[in-house]
Amino acid sequence: GKVRAKQYKDVPIKIPNWVPQAHCFTTEFKRHEKELLEAEVYPDDVWVLSYPKSGTTWVQEMVWCICNDLNFEAARATKISARFPFLEIGLQSAALHFSFKDVKDMPRPRFIKSHLPVSMLPKRYWEVKPKTIHIRRNPKSVAVSYFYHSQGIHYRGSMDTFLRSFVREHQFYSPYHAHVIEYHELRDCDNILHVSFEEMKRYLPSVVRKVCQFFGKSYSKAELELLYQHLSFKSMRDNPAVNFENPKGPTKGEPFMRKGEADGWKKELTPEQIHMLDEWTKERVPNPEHRKLFE
Question: Of 53, 92, 143, 196, which is least surrounded by CB within 10 A?
Answer without folding.
Answer: 92
